[in-house]
Amino acid sequence: MAADLTQSFLGKHFEKIVVAVAGAIFIGAVAWFVVMREPQDDLLRTTRNIVEDLEKKSKEKVDLDQAIDPAERMALGIGRPGTTANDIDEAVGAESAPYEIVVKTTPPIYPAKAPEVLARKFFLPATVLPVQEVQTAVGYGVTDADVPRAMAQLQTTTVTYSDIAWAGCVGKFDLTEQLKHYVQPYLDADQEPFFIKQSPIIVARVDLRRRQIRPDGTATDWEDVSPSTSAQDAGLPPPPDDGKDVQAGGQWLQGLLKSQPLVRRTPFYTIVSLGAGQTVQSLADTAEGAAQPDVASFLSRKPSPVPAGPAAAASTGPGAAPPKPAAASADVGPDWLHAGKTGPKPAEGPTVPVAEKEHVYATLWVVDPNVLPGKTYQYQMRVVLANPVWSMENVEPAENRWTLTLEGPWGEPTEPVTVPELASFYFVGTFGERVNLELHRWIHGQWFMVPSAPSRLGGPVVYVKRRAQIAVPGTNETVVQDVSLAPDAFLVDVIRNFPYQPQGRNRPIQTNVLVFADSQGNLDRRVEWEDQERARNDRRIRKEGPAPASGK
After folding, report:
1. Which residues, at least 6 apart from 252, have a Cβ–Cβ distance to it below 8 Å?
2. b vs e for 284-298, b when ≥16 Cβ sit within 10 Å of the residue's Cβ?
3. Rounded CA gap, 424 and 62, in Å?
4. Distance CA 436, CA 452 (A)
5. Which member of 174, 289, 303, 433 has the lowest number of beta carbons within 10 Å of its beta carbon?
6. Interatomic CA distance for residues 347 and 261, integer angstroms
7. CA atoms of 158 and 517, how far apart (whole Å)
8. Is 507 in a helix, a strand, or coil?
9. CB 329 within 8 A of CB 550
């Protein structure tokens, strides 16, 4: 009966039950897709972000400190000391805030930085020192070089010789003191100089300028003296056309280093026969210029012994050979060549260790072959150095990075020097209404002298020695040529029986005085008694012949 009732109920309501179940499924599906879709998207998005962050951190290869935040560090116990009983009591009693402590004391998270390297700075020398104690020499000579303004010329079968008048200057340049101006900026910056293995003082050129002193004591403006030989002809390296051409500039600097002895001496004519006057070579002595001071010794401030020469190295034992003498002419020339040094003078070559108080000087000289006899001149010299920090980065001041050379200041003017005349006269007596003159003329390396040449007052001195036999300098050849012995003078008047008291005499004597005008119209006088003494002395000296010539 029950079975029948069940059968009857299912049979009767089966379709309704199926419809109800289908409706419930449909309602659930609608609820799932409509109500729950947004939370599901949020969950998927969050998951995707987490995955992307992990992948990004994985690619950056960050360490643990960068991957976790302070709260995670606290939770994991990273960077915290072990828990003690006091920590538990404080935590239970809420007397501390471990989380806040961790947050405040954990350093900020940032990527590690590479160590910062400070750029090295290079400093221009604070100053370039002036040339000191400039000395001058004047004279005349014979040269076989091409001369634009010769005093006289001698044509031979092979070559033309020219007479020139010249003036020259020799000065000193303090290498040790200059080195201080190179090194000091690096010491102030707590840096080691970059040129520790080699002294950086390179002379690029030596400049000379002159002015003429007039008879009234006034002077002309300063004018530059051009060398008689170009740098190219002398074998010196020419400076680059473009100061920023690193390759050309480097070759120029290397050329300067190799030719310092030539650079320190401006090229001049090779004199094959000398006239009166001291030569520039004799003023400068035979020294090739002092060697560079040693930078390492300078920085250490400890005196270093000068390397022993042959004399110091000689054995002193019994039977040993006597020590060799010092270099020739070691005590000749200006005092500054030997000041502060012991032993032979240093020459170009190995560096010489320098003691703290010792100074090493370089010899500088320039010759001016374009002066006029009888004129008075005054000179100034300066040295031009190669820039030791040329083309380097981080040069201070930056605008001097591409400056090739540094010009020093002009030195003090020299004492005025007068170039000797090639022809001179001496008032040695009177001959009626005429005056009697002794004439001397230096030409082509020899003196021609006429002991008596009567001349009229009111006119110039004119005298020519016809068909004189002139010896060709350095050869056995002679050339026949007329020689003018006429000085550039105009005879004005004679004061006869003038009372004159010579130096060293107690009473005056009676003598004649000649009044004449020079080439510029300036009146001057000659005393007969004085000129007779001068003529005798000069004739004796000039008969001995000129001093032996010396080359460059």
Report:
1. 237, 238, 239, 240, 404
2. bbbbbbbbbbbbebb
3. 99
4. 6
5. 433
6. 10
7. 41
8. coil
9. no
Phi and psi angles of residue 65, each rounded to the nearest 5 degrees, phi first? -65, -30
Q: What is the pLDDT of residues 460-477, one digit of tens each?
A: 999 999 999 998 988 888
Beta strand 376-386 with 203-213: parallel, antiparallel or unpaired? antiparallel
Contacts of 320 (CB under 8 A, 6+ apart): 314
Mapped onto helix, strand or coil, the DSSP state of residue 3 is: helix
CB proximity list for 140: less than 8 A, separation 6 or greater: 151, 163, 164, 165, 166, 275, 276, 277, 373, 419, 420, 422, 442
Q: What is the pLDDT of residue 304?
A: 42
Is omega for the bond preceding 397 within 30 degrees of 0, making it cis?
Answer: yes
For 190-237, the DSSP string reads T---TTTTS----EEEEEEEEEEEPTTS-B---EEPPPSS-TTTTTPP
What is the Cα–Cα distance from 205 to 263, expressed in whole angstroms?
Answer: 6
Tokens of 253: 């600097």
415 contact partners, CB below 8 Å, separation of at least 6: 136, 378
Confidence (pTM) = 0.67
**Residues contacting 322, CB < 8 A, separation 6+:** 314
3-state secondary structure of 168: strand
> 464 in helix, strand or coil?
strand
Kindly state the tokens that stand for 18.
């199926």
CA distance 80 to 85: 15
**Rounded to an integer, what distance in angstroms lies between the CA atom of residue 129 and that of residue 385?**
10
CA atoms within a 13 Å half-sphere pointing along the CA-CB vector of 22: 6
Residue with tokens 């009146």: 523
